[in-house]
């Protein structure tokens, strides 16, 4: 093989055939725009790297108008990267790309936009679309009339043997999805059609039909086609093929001519020869040979397609190409109109897509609507209420009883001239312990009670001494003259298990509180001055109540964090799914702007957030009757703004994360510390001063305070304690949003 190749393939021809091997062009081949107009795609010295890895190495490529160009190469050689750069999906490091006479992205180039039909390697369609939806979606994005889309849909449906109109894409096979994807790229009859492996998984008969169609549109409509495929021999039907390896084009020529030059029967063999040659480093040798136009390496090739009379020979078709391209452009001039940042048709198509994606995902809807209700219900029912039925060991040495059968309050505190006579008041005190928080458990002595604590059977031991009543009476009678030992014996002693601080503290304060009531009642029976038994510190309450549960304190934080998290999760999941499926990229190539994508996602998700906020507020305030004092619309607004802020945060996460698992990690990894710092569970005032300022700068700390100020204090929007919280929400919403848009623009 190599022998016959050497015989026929002279060095000069080889030199002419291969081009672009590192010699820098002295000047651009074209000094006027009209030259580029002859090419559908013109790539010069293109370099694209991912990190330090160079994928495209000064690659040059020329695709004349009205031809089928087959781009061949092994997996990973950079074909998809090259196509992505051509359609403007990816930025490149250096070099030049002209598409249909303009540079992608430049105003008036029409690219991205309807001039190009792009079928990416991945399906890049919405799974919730029906077959018809998918084609119509792109038709509408391209601004086509409904009647025209309908007519095109019928034609493509027949041509590509598409499944029934109403079959959902997610229920189609891979091959069927690929055909729908092809139909979506063809619907608007683009001037340039770029397809990344369109025939994978397609039946050979249908594959043949697709190729026939490609030949037909290049011939009749002067469409230019770039197609990549793994089936090398399939490309015999192309007018020109580019053999790509390791980020470079080894050759670019018509298949017939390649076979002739290399004297082989198959393109596989041509590729093999050229690949070996590249391996041996002999391709670089050709730079020393004379070339047809040494002013520019990209111009060096056997058969330049420069004029209207050049005929391209392929094994399947011989066709005249390059005719009347200028006329075609004139009729399609409106496609070159500078792209509007916001176009009504595209916004409508995107809204329709988002809505279908939303309502056809029943599991998603159930989750989005029930999850906030479940969360707030669980919170109200499970968090912040008083502890109940905590077992407390009672050792009453006075009566050896906890319930004191036949006990009667009467006669336990009887006033007389100089004082008050007590009787059996240990039993009287024990009646005050009949409280939902406490479950009394009788123990015979302190030691066994303490054993009970150590074994976890009880949360503490309460002890009253033998003759507790007598010592208590002495304490009252003698006042400051009481002896220390008597004073000690008049005390109720308690040993608590404080390893569970919440329970330990709750029981401790409850016992003190119950004792206060007990003492007040006894002193009242003794006809002492009212208030004698009270602490001499009289605390009254301006906002809230003494017995407000912790639930009331945590409710604002809970509402806000639930909505922030829901907004963040919903947005990041939706956008990453769209981006991962390639729908975002594909829509962008079709002309959709980032603003339109962002805006339409925002509108739908804001509507969902509105419903979610209504649900959590109804659940908290109407169903669970949580108390509030302020204006309900203001409570609603503050929570809603945090939902929007969460959406913006989710948007930012979706931009910096490459996939769902990374997004979830970032989402929760940042959200959890924010939740700990926001004062939801513990006041920020308990933090070290530096940390407190940091905590207050976070998205929802001050909003939680604002919501508490409205719901508990009834403050109005004019109060800084309210509007500051709203300003912080707004600030973070804008910050996350702007940073995300900036990253989208720079990250490609
Ligand atoms: N986003 C990315 N970050 C880093 N490397 C990437 C990225 N995308 C592609 N690559 C690498 O670039 C190289 C070329 O990938 P590309 O997808 O362009 O190849 P290809 O020729 O289209 O392969 P295939 O035929 O299998 O689709 C591969 O080594 C790939 O791993």
TrEMBL record:
Keywords per UniProt: ATP-binding, Membrane, Nucleotide-binding, Transmembrane, Transmembrane helix
Main subcellular location: membrane
TM segment ranges: 358-380, 550-570, 602-624, 630-652, 664-682, 722-744
Source superkingdom: Eukaryota
Molecular function (Gene Ontology), one example: ABC-type transporter activity
InterPro entries cross-referenced by the UniProt entry: AAA+_ATPase, ABC2_TM, ABC2_TM_bact-type, ABC_transporter-like_ATP-bd, ABC_transporter-like_CS, P-loop_NTPase
Keyword Transmembrane tagged: yes
PROSITE patterns xrefs: ABC_TM2, ABC_TRANSPORTER_1, ABC_TRANSPORTER_2
Subcellular location: Membrane
GO CC terms: membrane
Membrane topology category: Multi-pass membrane protein
Domain ABC transmembrane type-2 as annotated: residue spans: 519-747
Domain ABC transporter: 41-271
PANTHER family: ATP-BINDING CASSETTE, SUB-FAMILY H, MEMBER 1, RH61964P
Name the record gives this protein: Uncharacterized protein
Annotated source species: Acanthoscelides obtectus
């Amino acid at each position: 093989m190599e022998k016959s190749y050497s015989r026929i393939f002279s060095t000069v021809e080889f030199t002419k055939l291969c081009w672009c091997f590192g010699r820098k062009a002295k000047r651009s081949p074209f000094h006027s725009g009209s030259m580029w107009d002859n090419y559908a795609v013109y790539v010069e010295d293109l370099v694209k790297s991912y990190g330090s890895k160079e994928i495209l190495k000064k690659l040059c490529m020329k695709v004349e108008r009205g031809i089928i160009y087959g781009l061949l190469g092994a997996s990973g050689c950079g074909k998809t990267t090259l196509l992505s750069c051509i359609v403007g999906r990816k930025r490149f490091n250096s070099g030049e790309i002209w598409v249909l006479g303009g540079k992608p992205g430049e105003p008036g180039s029409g690219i991205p936009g309807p001039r190009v039909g792009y079928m990416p390697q991945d399906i890049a369609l919405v799974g919730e679309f029906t077959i018809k939806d998918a084609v119509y979606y792109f038709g509408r994005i391209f601004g086509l009339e409904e009647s025209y889309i309908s007519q095109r849909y019928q034609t493509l449906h027949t041509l590509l043997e598409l499944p029934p109109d109403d079959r959902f894409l997610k229920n189609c096979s891979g091959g069927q999805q690929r055909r729908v994807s092809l139909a979506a790229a063809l619907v608007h009859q683009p001037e340039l059609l770029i397809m990344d492996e369109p025939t994978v998984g397609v039946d050979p008969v249908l594959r043949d039909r697709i190729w026939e169609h490609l030949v037909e549109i290049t011939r009749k409509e002067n469409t230019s086609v770039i197609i990549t495929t793994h089936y090398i021999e399939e490309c015999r039907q192309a007018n020109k093929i580019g053999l790509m390896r390791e980020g470079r084009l080894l050759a670019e020529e018509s298949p017939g001519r390649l076979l002739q030059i290399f004297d082989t029967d198959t393109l596989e063999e041509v590729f093999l020869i050229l690949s070996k040659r590249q391996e041996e480093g002999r391709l670089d040798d050709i730079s020393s040979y004379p070339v047809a136009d040494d002013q520019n390496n990209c111009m060096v090739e056997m058969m330049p397609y420069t004029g209207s009379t050049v005929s391209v020979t392929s094994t399947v078709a011989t066709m005249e190409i390059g005719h009347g391209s200028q006329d075609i452009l004139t009729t399609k001039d409106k496609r070159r109109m500078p792209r509007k940042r916001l176009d009504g048709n595209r916004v409508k198509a995107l809204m329709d897509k988002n809505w279908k994606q939303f309502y056809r995902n029943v599991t998603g809807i159930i989750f989005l609507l029930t999850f906030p209700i479940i969360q707030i219900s669980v919170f109200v029912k499970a968090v912040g209420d008083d502890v109940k039925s905590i077992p407390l060991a009672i050792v009453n040495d006075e009566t050896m009883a906890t319930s004191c059968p036949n006990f009667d309050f009467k006669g336990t505190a009887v006033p007389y001239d100089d004082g008050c006579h007590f009787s059996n008041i240990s039993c009287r005190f024990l009646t005050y312990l009949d409280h939902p928080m406490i479950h009394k458990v009788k123990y015979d002595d302190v030691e066994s009670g303490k054993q009970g604590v150590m074994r976890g059977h009880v949360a503490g031991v309460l002890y009253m001494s033998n003759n507790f009543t007598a010592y208590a009476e002495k304490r009252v009678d003698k006042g400051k003259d009481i002896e220390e030992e008597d004073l000690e014996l008049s005390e109720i002693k308690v040993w608590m298990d404080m390893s569970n601080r919440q329970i330990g503290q709750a029981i401790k304060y409850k016992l003190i509180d119950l004792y206060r009531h007990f003492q007040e009642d006894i002193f009242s029976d003794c006809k002492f001055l009212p208030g004698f038994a009270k602490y001499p510190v009289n605390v009254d309450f301006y906002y809230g109540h003494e017995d407000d549960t912790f639930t009331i304190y945590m409710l604002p934080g809970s509402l806000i964090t639930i909505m922030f998290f829901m907004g963040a999760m919903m947005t990041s999941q939706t956008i990453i799914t769209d981006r991962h499926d390639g729908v975002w990229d594909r829509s962008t190539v079709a002309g959709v702007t980032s603003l339109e994508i962002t805006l339409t996602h925002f509108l739908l998700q804001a509507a969902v957030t509105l419903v979610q906020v209504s649900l959590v507020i109804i659940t908290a305030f109407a169903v669970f009757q949580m108390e509030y004092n302020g204006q309900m619309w203001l409570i609603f607004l503050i929570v809603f703004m945090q939902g929007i802020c969460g959406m913006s945060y989710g948007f930012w996460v979706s931009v910096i994360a490459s996939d769902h698992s990374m997004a979830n990690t970032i989402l929760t990894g940042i959200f959890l510390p924010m939740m700990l710092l926001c004062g939801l569970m513990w006041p920020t005032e308990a933090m070290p001063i530096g940390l407190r300022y940091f905590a207050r700068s976070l998205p929802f700390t001050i909003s939680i305070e604002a919501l508490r100020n409205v719901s508990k204090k009834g403050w109005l929007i004019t109060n800084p304690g309210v509007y500051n919280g709203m300003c912080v929400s707004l600030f973070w919403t804008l910050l996350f949003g702007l940073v995300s848009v900036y990253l989208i623009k720079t990250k490609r």
